[in-house]
Protein 1
Amino acid sequence: MTWWRDAAIYQVYLRSFADGDGDGIGDIAGLESRLVYLRELGVDALWISPWYVSPMADGGYDVADYRAIDPAFGTLQDAERLIGAAHQFGLRIIVDLVPNHTSDQHPWFQEALRSEPGSPARERFHFRDEPNNWQSRFGGPAWSQVEDGQWYLHLFDASQPDLNWDHPEVREEFRSILRFWLDRGVDGFRIDVAARLVKQAGLPDKRGRFEGVPTFDDEPGEPDKDRPEVHEIYRDWRLVLGEYGNDRVFVGEIWVVDPERFAMYLRPDELHTAFNFAFLKCAWESEALRSVIDQTLAAHAKVDAPPTWVLSNHDVTRHVTRYGRKDSAFMKRVHDVPADLAQGTRRARAAALLSMALPGSVYVYQGDELGLPEVFDLPDALREDPVFRRTDGRDLGRDGCRVPLPWGGDAPPYEFGKGGAWLPQPPDWRDLTAAKQLGDADSMLSLYRLALRIRRSEQALGDGDMRWLVSEPDVLAFERDPGFTCMVNLTDHPVALPEGTPLVASADLIGAVGVPAELPPDAAVWLRAG
Ligand code: NOJ
């Protein structure tokens, strides 16, 4: 089965999705209560952010027990019930696997702390007498010192010690964790930090390009990223997955810029798919988009892997806000530039149709379908992202894209749950609640529901090929067989529609009876030939 080649996958950031027990934190019960919404939205699978036992120093990406559910989210039984319920609704479940690092509360790290330098317990991590010059992805040094003077490596927060993937016990443990969740019926794994598990032997210094400000994109050949040996791990995991048939999948979180190196992770005996961050980061500019699309298709074709199309996730500024900026390319650490949210919303609507029309699978981050913007004015005391603390507030961090969803009602917490919400929701989200948007045929939610439904029924969409059509500058137009056309207008003026009957448009088409219709600026349309 190859459902993943054209699936629409919805990312559930669990603590902000829906709260079932009234403690202000989203949980499994809340998710279960909204499965109908997700089925009606028209997605095929859910990717659930880490739900394991965790001190939540990094929203659960600091795992203390990979085989148990954090009490804030529920119990293992709740998770098993959720998997079963989702399957009954025709929704597959992808869980988030965090293999690069554990929590400092994980029993292995606690044992390492109690053990001597050079002891086997310390071998499972990267302990050294002297640190090298690596910086944490979250800001500040990538090394912290323990009581006896040794240092340990953490590419992220100090509470997230990196595992030593040269250690056979680490490898065996993750095979076992995979089987644990496969035995519980999950349909796949999203692999956190997938390109960084293996570090260059000896942990050599980097070439000194750090001034305390980490970037998302390293140069090729970095000692902590995209090492050739990392592929062995995925070949090994693929064999484990194979024990369970051929319809379970791996989705890699791979921030590797070079399309060819990126595609190496998607060779037939490695991961099935990976997030297309080149598309996510791309500015709302026709030539940049065209070139990212072309590069994506070419690189994936070589390894026969389906591309993915991603606009947002829980780590980046929401795209309604990004696309509202003069410079709409994704950049970290930008919070003080103005954004025209009306423009951003128009473009986000068009981008939704573009991403759902391209060949491959598509991701929807919770709240994309409501057109939520980034929230900047959170009280500092409530910010939880370690990035905020580790950069002394120079980077506001990622809490602003993780604000709990507004489901209904006129005031916070907008039916997120019976209690409050762990981060405050803006007052103007009363107009963006799911309930309000369901009653409005022109809303973002109605557009997503309609487009996902058409995407499912339209034979041309999902996996397959596309052909660019000749179009005027700053117009993206392509065909897919049989008989489907998508056009996106990135000019500042209306453009004539191509042949065909409009199926859905992100904005009202211009024209009256007898007058050829036109597509307004910042809009997209799908058409069927004939
Ligand atoms: C990527 C995850 O998406 C992000 O949220 C997390 O902070 C880092 N990996 C570290 O696990």
Protein 2
Amino acid sequence: MSHRCHIGLGSNQAEPRAQLRQACESLAALAGTRLLRCSRLYRSAPMGPQDQPDYVNAVALIDTTLTPLALLDALQAIEQQQGRQRKAERWGPRTLDLDILLYANQQIDSDRLRVPHYHMHARPFVLYPLAELDPDLILPDGTPLQHLLQNCPAQGIEAIADMPAQG
Ligand code: ROI
């Protein structure tokens, strides 16, 4: 059985646009997974420590037969392939960040994984690309995405490009 999942993508190192394009290709190539669509690419100032470059973010929608933890493993493998190094510094710059934002309508709270993603409710660089893909989305707890957007000003986030077509 396959599940519809929203994946958040972010990068602020080593040609962020190319990082996101490559990550989308890798998502499309995952076992048991189809890439349905990707949002445009959005640029925003860093949230958290300011002494790092602007970020480029996007959201991808996939259909996958992977379980949540298998999907997490696969996303972490893609991060590693693209040179992600886990550093002690929290909220520091990264070549690629892939987050499971939503996994079907499930709420998951385990040691390794929390879905919906912890901080998505207040992050414009997640909510705006998500709304581009699915404006009428309702979160698993019944909150409409549009409610979250009303409480989350766009704050300088800017669509800068389309995700290039896959294939
Ligand atoms: N800030 C922006 N704008 N985009 C991100 O993806 C992002 N990711 C992070 C932190 C460091 C919190 N800030 C971010 O992990």
